[in-house]
Amino acid sequence: MTTGVKKSSGQKVEPERVDGRRERSRSSHKRIVEAMMELIVGGDLAPSAARVAEEAGIGLRTVFRHFDDMDSLYAEITATITERVMPTVLAPYPDQDWRANLRELRRRRVRVFETTLPFRLAANIKRYQSPFLMGQYSRVVMLERELILRLLPGEVLSDRISVEALCAALSFQNWRALRHDQGLPAEEAATVTGHMVEALLGAIEGGKA
């Protein structure tokens, strides 16, 4: 007997299939990013797409379905790391003496630089072949410099040598040299940067006398 109502089992299943594919796609995307980050943190600063696929437990084709090239994967990692550290980077400073705020900036940079160290080392290897990574490098360097300049009073800003010395002491390049090139533990590298900043502050004060 025909009731005139067609069964629509396909209509019920299809959304579930679509949702399942989307969920698998999101899962694969996340696994690729996490695999890349884990490889970098583990010391492989230039992992290949094949190595990422192996670490993620997926096929190489799946990697390139989600990311057209390795640059797009680095862009995703950059966004992830930026989201992680920017609350610390951009947190407002207390209403206190500029020297105290500069010391606070140094403490913040120790935390941020240590978090981003392996990823920035990895990006540094590739940036001369990557317009995206080179542009990102330039933007970060400019931001880090600008954040220092905002804290300095006019009389210090007019002393170009002192400004450049502070920017160098508080730069990621200095942190990389201490941690990566000289092999200092993070705690010792933090102590060294503290000594550098205090010596520069002393020189600035001495120059005013």
Report on the structure:
The protein has 209 residues and is mostly helical. The chain has helices at 9-41, 49-56, 60-66, 70-89, 98-126, 131-149, 154-157, 160-169, 172-181, 186-208. The radius of gyration is 24 Å and the shape is elongated. Mean pLDDT is 89; it is low at 1-10.
Order of helices and strands: HHHHHHHHHH
Described by the principal axes of the CA atoms, the overall outline is: elongated
Q: What does the radius of gyration come to?
A: 24 Å
Largest sheet: none
Query: How much β-strand is present in the residues?
Result: under 5%
Structural category is mainly alpha
The helix tally amounts to 10
What percent of the residues sit in helical stretches (DSSP H or I)? over 70%
State mean pLDDT (0 to 100 scale): 89
Our measurement of the CA-to-CA distance between the termini, rounded to an integer number of angstroms, reads: 105 Å
List unreliable stretches of 5+ residues: 1-10
Number of strands: 0
Features:
209 residues; 10 helices; disordered N terminus
Short description:
The chain is mainly α and 209 residues long.
Task: Tell me the layout of helices and strands.
Blueprint (H helix, E strand, L loop, with lengths): L8 H33 L7 H8 L3 H7 L3 H20 L8 H29 L4 H19 L4 H4 L2 H10 L2 H10 L4 H23 L1
